[in-house]
């Protein structure tokens, strides 16, 4: 049987075509493998850069929020110190009112009066005398202890704030792999391996390096290290430790802590004025009105001699006293004044004639206390308080001005804690700006192309395709920033205003941000060198 020569020729054509097709398919597959590995490694490298940048600024946001929480805690404890100082002053004044040298005057008047005056004066006074004396002594003993404990807690919070702040800088450096050894290794002509055991001391644990955790072959590039170092410097300069007790160190901004603290004082500390005065109303009730404590209308009946009217008027408050440049002293003063009137009837030609006897503005009791540097109790030199309003307006009222003058002459007494007062604290360096964004962190990381699988490696060098990397490295660029935001829908302010950034409100957050054209251009320019 003969074979057609046409069939043999057709078989030869199919074989050649198949071989060419297989080669083309293999080349496409090898090319796809190389491009796929490049795409996978590029995505992994970009994810590593994004994760590292976001993690680093997340740590910075936590530091700002930690400072905000500790600042609030410090202010709360400063308010507690003011409360103790004020309560001690009030207790001393309370004791003096019912046990002092003037306490006998209203008792005499009430004794001359009828049963009504005795009931409403003598009965409560008998209870207030021992109670006020015991309470005054208790506060003189417990007050200094409480203030010292509160000041220790304030110092602990301040120390924690500083440790956390500088610890955050170390955390950021570890997160992005900015170790001293890595920086030294990038310097021209320096071989970090030659440092021996010193290299280990200068290297961070890679278990905290987010870049390495996402891509073990990736590192910060030289421009990336430079940008990270610049960022850390900017981050340190964005906030600063302020000292409200150093003259002109922080300018007007030095008053910020003092102002926030003063505004945070409770009603008892700001103003201890009583509504009606007297034993029944000796506790503070913010009011400027004078109401009688005892009124006995039966004294208006002819020949019914005795007290017609008796009343007490109390003023007091706590001030943040300025001593020189320092706003370090908490001082408090309380004073109580007495006003009384009695009627004595005489008969002239059988006609009853009332003779009024008035005792105006008698100082009844006074007290004061302080914590911090020794200071006077004058109406001036108090932080953010007009002289007329100092210590609850005690000097501005004729009923209590006498008690204030007596106490001012005596002074505030021994300080509860000489270290009391405002301390150093962290805040944004320039609070005249909105500061809604912190300094951005720009990261550039790189990966050597020798660590990227290619067709050259799987083919034993027979099928080589260039990976297209510049200077033998694949690089990725990322950017993240800290920003301040208090969402109105979630945390609305009562005044409806937009809150600006500070280290008093814990609304700092982290976010990724797009790289600017200049940042991308700088990264590309470096690769062309």
From TrEMBL:
Q: Is this entry keyworded Transmembrane helix?
A: yes
Write the record's keywords in alphabetical order, separated by commas: Membrane, Transmembrane, Transmembrane helix
Q: Which Pfam families match?
A: Tad
Domain of life per record: Bacteria
Q: List the transmembrane segments.
A: 12-35, 337-366
Q: Where is the Putative Flp pilus-assembly TadG-like N-terminal domain?
A: 12-59
Q: Identify the InterPro entries for this entry.
A: Tad_N (IPR028087)
According to UniProt, the name of this protein is Putative Flp pilus-assembly TadE/G-like protein
Protein source organism? Paucimonas lemoignei
Which lineage is the organism of this entry classified under, starting from the top rank? Bacteria, Pseudomonadati, Pseudomonadota, Betaproteobacteria, Burkholderiales
């Amino acid at each position: 049987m003969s074979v057609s020569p046409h069939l043999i020729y057709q078989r030869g054509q199919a074989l050649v075509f198949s071989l060419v097709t297989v080669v083309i398919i293999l080349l496409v597959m090898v090319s796809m493998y190389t491009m796929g590995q490049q795409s996978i490694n590029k995505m992994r490298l970009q994810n590593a850069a994004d994760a590292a940048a976001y993690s680093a600024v997340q740590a910075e946001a936590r530091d700002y929020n930690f400072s905000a929480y500790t600042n609030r805690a410090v202010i709360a404890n400063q308010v507690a110190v003011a409360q103790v100082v004020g309560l001690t002053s009030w207790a001393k004044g309370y004791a003096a009112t019912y046990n002092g040298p003037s306490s006998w005057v209203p008792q005499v008047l009430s004794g001359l009066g009828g049963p009504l005056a005795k009931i409403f004066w003598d009965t409560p006074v008998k209870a207030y005398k021992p109670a006020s004396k015991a309470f005054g002594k208790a506060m003189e003993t417990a007050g200094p202890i409480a203030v010292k404990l509160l000041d220790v807690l304030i110092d602990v919070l301040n120390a924690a704030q500083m440790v956390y702040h500088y610890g955050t800088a170390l955390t950021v450096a570890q997160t992005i792999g900015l170790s001293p050894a890595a920086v030294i290794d990038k310097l021209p002509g320096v071989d970090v391996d030659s440092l021996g055991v010193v290299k280990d001391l200068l290297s961070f644990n890679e278990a905290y390096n987010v870049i390495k955790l996402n891509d073990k072959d990736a590192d910060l590039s030289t421009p990336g290290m430079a940008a990270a170092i610049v960022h850390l410097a900017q981050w340190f300069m964005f906030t600063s430790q302020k000292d409200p007790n150093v003259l002109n160190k922080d300018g007007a901004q030095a008053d910020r802590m003092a102002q926030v603290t003063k505004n945070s004082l409770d009603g008892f500390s700001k103003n201890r004025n009583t509504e009606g005065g007297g034993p029944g109303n000796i506790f503070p009730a913010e009011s400027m009105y004078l109401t009688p404590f005892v009124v006995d209308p039966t004294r208006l009946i002819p020949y019914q001699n005795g007290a017609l009217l008796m009343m007490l008027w109390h003023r007091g408050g706590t001030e943040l006293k300025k001593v020189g440049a320092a706003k370090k002293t908490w001082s408090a003063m309380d004073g109580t004044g007495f006003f009384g009137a009695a009627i004595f009837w005489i008969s002239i030609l059988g006609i009853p004639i009332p003779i009024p006897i008035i005792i105006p503005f008698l100082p009844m009791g006074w007290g004061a206390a302080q914590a911090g540097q020794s200071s006077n109790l004058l109406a001036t030199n108090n932080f953010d308080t007009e002289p007329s309003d100092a210590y609850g307006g005690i000097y501005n009222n004729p009923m209590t001005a006498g008690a204030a003058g007596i106490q001012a002459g005596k002074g505030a007494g021994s300080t509860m804690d000489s270290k009391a007062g405002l301390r150093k604290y962290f805040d944004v360096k320039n609070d005249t700006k909105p500061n809604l964004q912190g300094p951005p962190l720009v990261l550039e990381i790189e990966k050597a192309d020798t660590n990227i699988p290619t067709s050259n490696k799987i083919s034993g060098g027979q099928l080589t395709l260039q990976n297209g990397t510049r200077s033998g490295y694949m690089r990725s660029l990322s950017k993240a920033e800290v920003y301040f935001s208090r969402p109105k829908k979630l945390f609305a302010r009562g005044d409806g205003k937009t809150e600006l950034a500070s280290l008093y409100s814990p609304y700092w957050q982290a976010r990724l941000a797009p790289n600017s054209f200049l940042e991308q251009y700088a990264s590309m320019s470096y690769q062309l060198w």
